[in-house]
Structures are given as C-alpha cells and as structure tokens.
Amino acid sequence: MCYAIPGKIKSISDTVILVDYFGEEKKAYNDFYDLAVGDYVFAQGGYVVQKVSKKEAEEILSVWKETFFELQEVDLRLSSLDLKSAGIERKTALILDKIAQNSSLSKEEALYLINSENEREIELMLKTANFLRQKYLKNSCCVHGIIEISNRCQNMCSYCGISANNKTLSRYTMTKEEIFEAAKEAVNRHGFKALMLQSGENHGCSVDDLGYVIERIKNELGALVFISFGEIGLKNLEKLYKKGARGLLMRFETSNPEIYRNICSGNELEDRLEHIKNAYEIGYLIATGSLIGIPGQTKEDIINDIYLARDLKAEMFSFGPFLAHPETPLFDIRPVMEKEMLKTLALARFIGGKEVKILITTAFETLSKDARKKGLLSGANSVMINVTPRQYRKLYTLYPKRAHDQEDIVNQINDTVSLLRSIGRAPTDLGAS
Ligand code: 5AD
Q: Which one, of 288, 286, 226, 218, lies nearest residue 42 by Cα?
C-alpha cells in the first residue's frame, strides 16, 4: 500500500528541489540525499523522505495515473458550491460568498458563523469549507501513522486519562527496539511515509534513545518523523531535530490562559506557547490545536484557538472534542455535539486558509462514527492511523472507548483507503507547495 506518489525531479537549486506529479509542480526540501534531475523521490510535508528507483516509480505511477484523475473528478463534483441563499440570513450568505472569493474572515464574522444554529446555514458553511479545501489543496489527503510509545506522564491535567493522577492505569514504555520495529512495520510493510511518535511527558525513554530511534527511522526506513512528547525543552528539541525529527505535534489545548491554568494543574499557557515557537524557530513543522468542549470554553475562545493555531504558523491543525474520562476530575462533563466539531473544522479552513492541513482526530471519530467522512467534506484533509502494537494501544487511554483501539492495522488502512476513494481523495501527501 502506498501513501505517496513518487515525483520526478525537474530542477535542483541548492537544498530545494522542484518535483513533478502528473503535471503539478511542488517544492520539497532535501537535506540528505544526493539527488539529480530526473530522479524519483517520495516527499512528505515538503521534505524528501526517500529516493525511489526509476523502475519502482514507473510501476507505482502507472497504477496511479488513471485512478488519480478519476479521483480528482469525483472530488470536484462533491466539492462544487452552489451558494443558493434560500432559507439563510442575508448576512450569512454575504460572508460565505466573500470567503468563497478568497477574502479573509474578520473575527466578528467568524463569531457570527460559529453561533449559527440554522441547519441550512451550517450545511452551506461546511460545503464552503469543502469547496475551499478543494480549490486550495486539490484532493490529496495526508495519512500519517501514529505510534504511542509510552503512556507514562508526569503531568496532572484534569482532562486527561493518562494523567499521573490516574492510579488505576497500568503503565508501559516501549523499548527503543520495539519502537523501531513498530516503525519498520508501518513503513516497510504498510507503506507509511510519515510517522508521529507520541507519549506522555517524561515517560522513561531517554532523549538519547529517542534520538537513536529517530535517526534509524530517517536513515534506514525513510519517513518523516513528528514528535509529540510534551514540553521536552529547547535543548532536547534541538537534539532530536539534529537526529532527524522534522515535525512537532503539541496542542496548546486552549488559547484562554485562565482555563489552561485550571485544566493543566497550574501550568502556564505561555510556557507551552514558548515551546511551540522554539520548535518553529528550529525548523520543525508545527501541528497544533485545542480541545473543543472543555469546561468554561466559549465560542469566542474556540475562534481565538483557531487564530492562535494560525499565528503559530501551524502546518497542521488538530482540533478535537474533549471526551470525559471516568478517572479524572472532569468525569461528568458532556462532550460537544458533532455539528459543533464540524463547524469548528469549517472555521479552521476559513481562518487557516490555503496551505493548512486539517486533521480528523481520533477523539472526533470516537464521538461520531461518521466523523471522518463528514469532517473530510467540511474542510479537513488529513487522517491518522494508529500503528501502535495492539497490546499497548489499549493502554493509551486519553479517554474511554477510543475508536480503532482493537482494530487490526490492515483493516484500518483498508477502511481508510476505501473511504477516501469513495469521496475522491487520494491517500497522498504531495508535499508542501
Ligand atoms: N479527550 C480528548 N482529547 C484528550 N487529550 C487528552 N485527554 C483527552 C480527552 N479526555 C488530547 C490532548 C493532548 C492530546 C495528546 O490528547 O489535547 O494534547
């Protein structure tokens, strides 16, 4: 199974190469291969991750060629927009019309949209987001694999099921060999080109061990590595970047400093933001976002969250519903409704704009069984598949009854690919433009 289409190098200028994909040209950053014009490569998130032989590339391209254009047609049909304004407020029609013409959205307009409870208006809002996603990013969809390397955590966040306060949970930390084996299976057997390594904070796997694994994944397997180990500090961020990590997933959880202090056991939002900004300065691609539906959060907070993710120059947005865990102080909070999440994704597309990847989170898939399809038709263009060994996956209980916790990886992949095909999306990340 292949999650990337090989591209042919058209030109090389220092460390930036221009790659051709069926007539579309994209730039990719190349930081370690000896490449020449005419070579084929796989790129992810704007980075070259693997060189591919001409023979292999031509085989893959011949399989993809027809499918690729068929999928684009299906996508184009599903994302067409007819802004008929019957049954909606004139103001909503004007705002959506303006967004569809590429104009940016004011905060007041964003608030106006997120507050709408009119079904027809919401439907048009989601369609407009899908229209923009197609217009800006065509039909490519990122499919990343995630390996949850440890459920140990030193923090006591009141929303989180793996908080140090949860004494009922059995804890695990994968060894560096286990992590590499899981990565090898994901890349070599299942074809993933981008992997997220995630854990609680301060989990018992040393930074040196993590560096060792990341270096091997980059050099021996050829995949883009994102890290998500909490606030590991500037020095460790630098260390892991040198070893080959190129992305950081770190949510700021909420843009409201008071709520942050309340739910993150007195920690400061400022420190979290500093960490994300430091990672960006080092060169990491940033994936960030917030929890939707935490106590005290207003609609305005959600809009501020989206603006903050944009201001942090995120390459990927990750907004997901808060789902209460019985062993936490927030055990009795009810989650948001599906339509609130869909509105959030649509607004994320309106505010995040042309380049940003928007993820369908596993939490959203747990909240609603149609989350993937509906989310992908509401501005999102990215999904993750859990490739953690199954015996560990069930212990990574951020919240109960997580979607896909017991599912075989091959089944998850097949389901994902058939869903993507049904809505005209190619399970590919063609790299940053
Ligand atoms: N519900 C939804 N998401 C959660 N996370 C942690 N606990 C929960 C929960 N109960 C999310 C946080 C964290 C990410 C790894 O998981 O946003 O950043």
A: 218
Mutate to test the pocket of ligand 1, among 146, 150, 152, 160 (most ligand atoms within 8 A of CB): 160
Q: Which of 68, 88, 85, 87 is nearest to 22 (CA)?
A: 68
For residue 412, give the amino acid letter: Q
Task: Tabulate helix, strand, coil % of the chain (nearest 5).
Answer: 40, 20, 40
What number is the average pLDDT over the span 353-372?
A: 95
The residue behind tokens 């920690």 is: 267
**Ligand 1 and 159: CB distance under 6 A:** yes
Give the range among 82-86, 145-149, 224-228, 268-272 with minimum mean pLDDT: 82-86
24-36 pLDDT, tens per residue? 888 999 887 789 9
Cα 110 to ligand 1 centroid, rounded to whole Å: 25
Return phi, psi of residue 198, to 5°: -130, 150
Number of Cβ within 10 Å of residue 238's Cβ equals 14
Residue range 185-201, pLDDT digits in tens? 999 999 899 999 999 99
Rounded to whole angstroms, what are the CA distances from 403 to 103, 367, 383? 37, 9, 13
Q: 363 CB under 6 A from ligand 1?
A: yes
Of residues 346 and 14, which shows the higher confidence score?
346
Structure tokens that stand for 157 in this block: 């966040």
Nearest alpha-carbon partner for 361 in 275, 262, 287, 261: 287
H helix count then E strand count, the chain: 15, 15
Can you name the residues that pair with 224 across neighbouring β-strands? 194
